[in-house]
Amino acid sequence: AFTPRVFSGIKPSGGLTLGNYLGAIKRFVGMQGGEFETIYCVVDMHAITVWQSPEDLRHATREVAAGYLAAGIDPDKSILFNQSRVSAHAELGWLFNCVARVGWMNRMTQFKDKAGKNAENVSLGLYAYPSLMAADILLYHATHVPVGEDQKQHVELTRDIANKFNHDYKVDFFPETVPVIEGPAMRVMNLRDGTKKMSKSGESDMERINMTDDADTISKKFKKSRTDPDVLPETMDGLSERPEARNLVNIYAALADTTGEAVLSEFGGEGWGKFKPALADLAVDKLAPISTEMKRLMADPAEIDRIMAKGAEKANEIAQPILAKTFDIMGF
Ligand code: ADP
Ligand code: NA
User: Fold this and answer.
1) Does ligand 1 lie within 6 Å of residue 25's CB atom?
2) Per the annotation, does 19 bind a ligand?
3) Distance from C-alpha of 275 to C-alpha of 223, rounded to nearest angstrom
4) Which of 34, 38, 66, 311 is most exposed, with minimal Cβ within 10 Å?
């Protein structure tokens, strides 16, 4: 039996969004100090699958660390570290490149979306990304991976790699990791059309809420967010054809730690003139303190680096023996 252990990560490929907060970080905080050992990573080696200038990478890496800390990841309760500081990730990633099949990679929808028509000219790393992600997870024998819906396919691929490795080498060494995708924020959409995922690299700043936005900006963005003219329905079924409205109700529910149904039992029958200011106030209430704390932390990068270096030592203590055993199993 494997120790109940959570691993998850965030790429420092731009500023953190409300999607990262509600779909990932807030849930990571909720899993701390309970039945799981929790390991959270700034996956900097994933960020460079698309071009990052060295200054941007350095800044974004510290910003993701600050986001974790400001939102409540406690380095005494969780292992928090940068991926590149634990070289076993790259080593196991290579071993898994030799386990995973090209056909499996060809099925990854995120690669198809990101590469688009340019598939011949993207980095080889972007293509192999899910294999490194499997290494991130399995290097700790993680049993559970909290992620947004967009990462479901990659966690399933992680299971395929673990199963093939166990089968090929006739061992029961890597666990079948379970993706944990739940709650109203598993897929936060942008504020423009409600049909595209809110993303760090989204087109316009008005379409996303950044974790570093100040109170006025958060409030303004929600008040200007696009909606239809109808009043809110009494149940979530009434939102099936109304993606912008559904997105805002789900965001409200996630911020308030409740369900969409509960939000509609309060706001059903009301118009946007009542709901949007309430959402803006709630969001400011929950997010502005985190944004303020992130800025305080970012003003002292040496302190962030010190915390992350300590986390890397702890991560290495788990990772090194698992990598060594993997090499041994494979005949190195
Ligand atoms: P991004 O997609 O913003 O570049 P990452 O790929 O680093 O972010 O993902 C970090 C975590 O945040 C993952 O668990 C991912 O599923 C989650 N996540 C990212 N965007 C969203 C979103 N819009 N809604 C819910 N979860 C999200
Ligand atoms: Na993502």
Assistant:
1) no
2) yes
3) 10
4) 34
Q: What's the pLDDT tens digit per position in 141-158?
A: 999 999 999 999 999 999
Residues 164 and 252 in one domain: no
Are 140 and 97 in a shared domain? yes
Is the CB of 210 inside a 6 Å radius of any atom of ligand 1?
no
Element (H, E) at 310: helix 301-330
Q: Is 114 a catalytic residue?
A: yes
Q: Which of 77, 152, 164, 197 is catalytic?
A: 197
> Domain check: are 163 and 26 in the same one?
yes
Residues 38 and 134 in one domain: yes
Domain that holds residue 316: 5-180+301-330
104 and 253 co-located in one domain: no
In terms of domains, do 315 and 270 share one?
A: no
Q: Is 11 in the pocket of ligand 1 (CB under 6 A)?
A: yes
Helix (H, G, I), strand (E, B) or coil at 140: coil
> What ipTM, to 2 d.p.?
0.96
| CATH code: domain of residue 39 | 3.40.50.620
Query: How long is the chain?
Result: 332
Q: Which residues contact 203 (CB under 8 A, 6 or more apart)?
A: none
197 in active site: yes
Residues contacting residue 121 through CB under 8 Å, at least 6 positions apart: none
Please list, in sequence order, all residues whose beta carbon lies within 8 angstroms of the beta carbon of residue 240, skipping any fewer than 6 positions away.
246
- Both 174 and 245 in one domain: the answer is no
**Residue nearest atom 15 of ligand 1, based on CA coordinates:** 148
Ligand 2 centroid – CA 203 distance (Å):
15
Question: What ligand has the least distance to the C-alpha of 13?
Answer: 1
Coil, strand or helix at 179:
strand
pTM: 0.97
Does residue 187 lie in a domain region?
A: no
226: domain CATH number is 1.10.240.10
Find the 148 Cα to ligand 1 centroid distance in Å.
6
pLDDT tens by residue, 180-232:
999 999 999 999 878 899 998 767 888 999 999 999 999 999 999 999 999 99
111-141, pLDDT tens digit by residue? 999 998 988 999 999 999 999 999 999 999 9
Was 200 annotated as part of a binding site? yes
